[in-house]
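A favour between colleagues. Tell me how you read the following sequence-structure pair.

===
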Amino acid sequence: MLQLILLAVVAALALFQLYAVLGRRLGRQAEDRAVRAPNAPQLRRAGPPLASDAAIPDEPPEGLAAVRARDPGFEPQVFLSTVRTAYRSIVTAYAAGDREVLKPLLTPDVMAGFETGMAEREAAGRQEGVEIPHPPRSDVEAAEVDGDRVRIVVRFLAELMQTTRDSAEAEPHVFDRRTAELWTFERDLSDREGAWRLAGVDAAEA
């Protein structure tokens, strides 16, 4: 009888130890998560402040937009009309050797180059004349602003009727020719009365 009682006690102790082990929760359980109070602020990881109204820097304007930004009164069509008139005056004045007409229409560097060409022609005794029967076609190719100086490149396509004489007594040679050139005009915006002047001439593809 005593032996049975001892066996029952040992069994009871074994069952108690087994329950203690199996009944223990292992790891973090769902109900162990901290419960945030309803009015508690939500915590976020620290980061750089965001400004929704931060100003985005604008790209500087280019081409004719840059010209108009510096000179609000600039009108492309008025400009093209002006330089078409200048083209006719410059071409005909150069052929005739009219320095008085050329000087206010050219920059000093271009005037110096034209002067060299006219002087060589006059020294050789050659005479020239040019007529432009139709207004030249003119298109803006490029434009830039450099400080107070504005430069605009214009492509001119023109038909010319040219007359040349090797001397005053020689028979004239008359021929038609087409030209395709890039003329660069510039203007100093710091001079309110400043006009557009021819600053360069380059050959172009027709």
Q: What stands out?
A: Residues 180 and 205 are 6 Å apart (CA to CA). Residues 2-54 have pLDDT under 50 and may be disordered. Helices lie at 2-22, 63-70, 76-96, 99-102, 108-124. The longest strand covers residues 149-165.
